[in-house]
Design brief:
Elements lengths: L1 H39 L6 H26 L7 H18 L4 H23 L5 H19 L4 H4 L5 E2 L13 H25 L1 H11 L1 H6 L4 H27 L1 E2 L6 H14 L6 H19 L4 H15 L3 H18 L1
Antiparallel strand pairs: 1-2
Length: about 350
């Protein structure tokens, strides 16, 4: 009896360890399966479907950037469509006016958007809540008009925009242009998500969440809230600008009308539907932003926006914390049942 009693605690203590290891293994297997499916996808779907999948990847990067700012740091933005436009036009102008390789324009767009976002974030430090929303709203409204300004026509092409040639696969790879562009976007998306994961899982991420939840307490504990907010605005704009640069290569055309205020609204809708403060939610939000308008247009040519509104209301009613909030709730419920 004594032997049995002393062995039970060891078994109980070991169970969570094995459960944790099993969960991590399943996470690695699931991630590997998703990456494998993503690599096989361009060879089993049509060119149009590949275009949609590529657009989802690009939107996911943009939504990740906005989620870092709004979901993790609590700064509300209605102007990230402007950073998306700046990134797209940076790539388009460099390809149109210089001989820079297309792949080199992506980091340049990211650096420029980081600088613009950081500089915009400095005066925005005095604004919070709906005042910050109005300031970013003004940025989203002004950007397309500046791109149309006649004195900038020699760079932006005015209302006519700029046409971009799709890059071919390098080194004689047996890939179509759209297939190579898909892998090119994927090669940017994976490192960006890894960088964001490391950033948000460490000390910086904890500081951002502390500023979001209790800014006064965070400042009292020695966190430089002004510096973190400005840097977060810059990093968020950088992610969205890189997405815009990739989106320009994908669309092969940029014009001011492609970056209206509703693009910023769609980004905001995407992070809410996918789930605030969730990296995986960026993909679910991107799927919603890309596919729901197309489906609504197929269902009704007369009032597609009404169908989009109904679907959005239904999502918020059924999933008030977004898709990832629902996934977490189901996971906790399943975990409790397994534990029993």
């Amino acid at each position: 009896m004594a032997t049995l009693e002393t062995s039970r605690p060891a078994t109980t203590a070991a169970a969570p360890l094995f459960a944790g290891l099993s969960l991590r293994v399943w996470q690695i297997i699931g991630l590997a399966a998703v990456l494998a499916a993503a690599c096989v996808l361009p060879f089993i779907i049509s060119s149009y479907q590949l275009l949609l999948a590529n657009q989802v990847i690009v939107y996911a990067v943009a939504l990740l950037g906005l989620n870092i700012l709004t979901g993790y740091n609590g700064q509300f933005s209605l102007g990230h469509g402007a950073f998306y436009a700046i990134g797209a036009y940076t790539t388009a102008i460099l390809l149109d006016k210089t001989g820079i390789p297309y792949w080199a324009t992506i980091p340049m767009a990211g650096v420029l958007c980081f600088a613009v976002g950081f500089l915009f974030g400095l005066p925005a430090l005095r604004l919070e809540g709906h005042y910050l929303a109005l300031a970013t709203f003004a940025l989203a409204i002004a950007t397309p008009q500046l791109l149309k300004y006649k004195d900038f026509d020699f760079l932006t092409g005015g209302v006519q925009g700029i046409v971009i040639t799709a890059p071919d696969a390098p080194g004689g790879l047996p890939l179509r242009a759209d297939q190579w562009l898909y892998f090119f976007c994927l090669l940017w998306t994976i490192p960006l998500f890894i960088v964001a994961w490391n950033l948000l899982r460490g000390r910086t991420g904890r500081a951002l969440v502390a500023i979001r939840d209790h800014p006064l307490a965070a400042a009292t504990m020695g966190i430089d809230t002004a510096r973190y907010k400005s840097m977060t605005f810059g990093v968020s704009a950088m992610f969205t600008g890189i997405a815009g640069a990739l989106g320009a290569l994908l669309a092969q055309f940029v014009s001011p009308d492609s970056f209206d205020f509703f693009l910023s609204v769609r980004f905001l809708v995407g992070i809410v539907v996918g789930g605030l403060a969730s990296m995986a939610g960026a993909f679910f939000g991107a799927i919603f932003v890309e596919f729901v308008p197309n489906i609504a247009d197929l269902l009704s040519k007369a009032a597609p926006q009404a169908i989009q509104g109904i679907v959005l209301i239904g999502c918020m009613y059924l999933m008030p914390t977004g898709v990832m909030g629902l996934v977490r709730a189901l996971g906790h419920r399943l975990g409790r049942r397994v534990a029993r």
